[in-house]
Amino acid sequence: MKRETLVGIAAGLLMTCSVPVMAQELGYWRASSKTAHDITGDIGIGETNLLINLSSYNIAQAKTLTPAEVSTVFDTDSAGTKRAHLYGMSIPATKKFLHKNTLCGSDDTKWMVTYVDGNMLQVAFFSGESAPAFTPDAMANATNLCGIYTYVR
Description:
Elements: H1 3-18, E1 27-31, H2 34-39, E2 43-45, E3 49-52, E4 55-65, H3 67-73, E5 84-91, E6 109-117, E7 120-127, H4 136-140, E8 145-152
């Protein structure tokens, strides 16, 4: 190979390795759980938006959850290495999705937690102006957890 080609390949690899890792939840997801089939259908997650039933909503990543925090929301190993993301959002309670369902009943949806394990995505939606508290006691008594949905790629 020519020297210029090798330098070009090396530069390309270096640039690829220096790009920050994107959130694994980004992209198109097919509804897998009954709840997801009945309420949201398939979804799409972008860096700044969530697409549900052809409607787009702005989202902003608020926090990366530790494995211990993840295990308070989803059935995961608290000693594991997988992390989740908390997003702020605003979906009005009046917004109807599939079969005239809402995400949080009569409350606005304000928070979303996403957790990816392989080709499976779990999403939890929360109401309330304050971010959810990710402790075992808080989640056991949470009145702002609207539902948990499962999707696959």
